[in-house]
Amino acid sequence: MQGMVTAMVTRSLRPIPVVNMERLAGILVLSLLASNVAAQNPLVGEWRGHWIRAGDSMEVTLHIRRDPASRALNATFDSKRLRVQGIPFAEVKVEGCCDVMMRLQGDRTTTTFTGALRNGRLSGELREGESVGRFAYVRTRAPLAVPREREVTFSNGAVTLAGSLILPRAGRRHPAVVFVHGSGAEGRWASRFLATTFAENGIAALIFDKRGVGKSSGDWRTATLDDLAGDAAAAIAYLRRQKEIDPRRVGLHGHSQGGTLLPMIAARSDSVAFLIASAAAGIPTDSTEIFSILNSVYPNASTAEDSSSAREYVTELVAAAYHGLARNRLDSLISRFRERPWFFAPPPPASSYWSFSRPFNEFRPLDWWRQVRVPVLLVYGERDMRVPAGESAARISSTVLRHAPNADVAVRIFPGADHSFRLAPGPSGWPMTAPGYVPSLVSWLNARI
Known about the structure:
- This protein is α+β, with helices and mostly antiparallel strands.
- Helix content is 30%, strand content 29%.
- It has twelve helices and 19 strands.
- The chain has helices at 4-13, 24-27, 192-200, 225-240, 257-267, 285-297, 304-323, 328-337, 352-361, 365-369, 389-403, 437-448, and strands at residues 45-53, 56-66, 73-79, 84-88, 91-95, 99-105, 110-118, 121-128, 131-140, 148-156, 159-167, 174-180, 204-208, 245-255, 275-278, 376-381, 409-414, 422-423, 432-433.
- The strands form three sheets. It has a nine-stranded antiparallel sheet with strand order 4-3-2-1-9-8-7-6-5.
- A hairpin with a 2-residue loop joins β10 and β11 (159-167).
- It is globular and about 65 Å long.
C-alpha cells in the first residue's frame, strides 16, 4: 500500500506543520451556523480577498450561501495557490449585524478567523496556534463561466461508484479525463481543482469517490488491484456513453498509486486516448516502499548508526509485508530499535497494509507500460520523497519507446517540487505550487486533443 506506512511515520515523527492543506479537504465537516441573521444576510454572496501572514499574501475566494431548507449559512473557500476548491469552514458564528467568527478545522491544525463586516468589506484577524495574521475580503460577482457539474453513479459489478461529471460551460462532444485515485481513502475532492481547471479549458472531467469513501459502496481496504483497475475502467465506459463527451478522446490522469496503475487500466479499457501519469513508480513496488519510508525516518536519524539501523528495520518490514517473510526477525528488530529516535511501530495486524502489500508486490509497472501505444505525459517533482522521480521517468519512457519507437512520450520534472508538486513553504506555512505545473498539463492536453 504505497504511502500508508510513510503517512504513519510522518504523523508520528515529523513536526506538526503550520498548515496541512494536503489532506484538509478529506476531513473537514460542513457545519456553518448563523445566529440573529436577517432574511437578506449581508454575508451571502461571493467574496475575493487575501490571507496575510509572516509577510506572505495568498489570494482566496470565499463563497457564502444560505441553505434553503435549514436557513443556515454554508461557506466554502477556493485557493489556486493551494490547489483546493470548495473547502468548507467547520463553523461560522455571527453576532449582531456585523461581527463574524469562522473556524477552519484541519486534521492537525485549527485556524480561527475573527472579524467584522463594515461598508461591504469583511476583514479581521486569523490565528493558528501562536501564529497570527490578517484577512480581508471585498464583495465580487460570481464568475460567468463556471463549469457545469452533475452528480453521477456507475457500477463495477456489485459496487456502485458515485462521482461528479464536470463539464465546460458551453458546447458538447468534449474531450474528457477520468481521474484515478492515489492510495488511501481518497474521495472526489482530491481531484476537484484540476478537474475544474480542465473544464475551464474545454476538457470535461469525471471525479469519483473511491469504493468505500463518500457516497461509493464497497471497501477500498479489501479491494484488489483488479478491483481498482476495474473501477477506473467502468468510469471510462460510463464517460464514453455521455452525450456531451467525444468517446474517441477520453483519457486518464492518475497520481502516485493511481499513476502507477494507469498502464494496467489502459490495457483493460477500450480506446483510451492518452495517459497523464503523475508521480508514477517506475521501479519495483517494494523498492518504492523502502524509498518512501526511509525518506520519512531519515530526518530523525542523527548518526550513521541510526541511518544504518533504520534501513535494516525498514527493509525487514517491507520484506514481511511485500514478500510474506516470517515476522520473527522483524519482531526482534522492533525490540532492539524501539528506543531509537527514528523508530515507528509497524501497522497493526488488522491493517489493510498487510493484505494489500503482497498483491501489490506482484504488480510489475514496466510490464504494463510495454503495452502502451497512446500519448503519455509523465510528471514528477524533483524532490519527490515517495517515488524516485528521475529513475522512474527514465525507466518508463525508455520502456514505452523501446516497444513503440514512434510513441509520443513527454517528461516534465519540476525543480524543487515535492510529491504533490508543491515547493517548501516559507514562514507563513502556505506552500506554493511549482511554477508551470498546472499550465503544462493543460497545454499538453490541448496539443493532443
